[in-house]
Amino acid sequence: QAQAVATGGGLVQAGGSLTLSCAASELSSSAWGWFRQAPGKDREYVAAISKRGDSTNYAKFVKGRFTISRDNSKNMMYLQMNSLEPEDTAVYYCVANPANVKFQPHFDSWGQGTQVTVSS
Questions:
Q1: pLDDT at position 109
Q2: Which of these, 74, 79, 80, lies nearest to 93 by C-alpha position?
Q3: Which residues have CB under 8 Å from 34's CB, separation 6+?
Q4: CB–CB of 25/97 below 8 Å?
Q5: Whether the Cβ atoms of residue 117 and residue 84 lie closer than 8 Å to each other
Q6: 104: which of 32, 34, 45, 66 lies 20 to 30 Å off by Cα?
Q7: What is the 3-state secondary structure (H, E, C) of the chain?
Q8: Amino acid 105: pLDDT
Q9: What average pLDDT does this structure show over 83-107?
Q10: How much of the chain exceeds pLDDT 90, in percent?
Q11: CA–CA dist 37, 44 (Å, integer)
């Protein structure tokens, strides 16, 4: 089982956009989602997408700004982020079965995250 790798982060100004990508072996076999962690803060749920991509879910703070999607033919998942705010600054991780991860405080399989920094 290959480790999940998130890419596409970077430095943007407030109001800007970024698209994150996630690659993992067997990504197409389950639901996936995004979490983030800012310095000094707990891990925070961001968004999730069902196995076939026919349903999505977002944290309340997203407020319509983000879109989660997937391409199962490529074992890829994406997070399009618009109208970014400084509060979005964090390391973003992609994980399988995010509904379960939310209830696992000692979850260890975060894979490779990507840094998003939003300047004011």
A1: 87
A2: 79
A3: 20, 22, 45, 46, 47, 48, 68, 79, 92, 93, 94, 95, 98
A4: no
A5: no
A6: 66
A7: CCCCEEECCEEEECCCCEEEEEECCCHHHCCEEEEEECCCCCCEEEEEECCCCCCEEECHHHCCCEEEEEEHHHCEEEEEECCCCHHHCEEEEEEECHHHHCCCCCCCCCCECEEEEEEC
A8: 84
A9: 94
A10: 89
A11: 6
**2 pLDDT band (50/70/90 cuts)?**
low
Of the chain, the percentage scoring pLDDT greater than 70 comes to: 98
Residue 98 · residue 33 · CB < 8 Å: yes
Q: CA-based diameter of the chain, in Å?
A: 39
Residue that has been written with the tokens 């891990």 in this structure: 43
Q: In this predicted structure, what is the pLDDT of residue 14?
A: 98
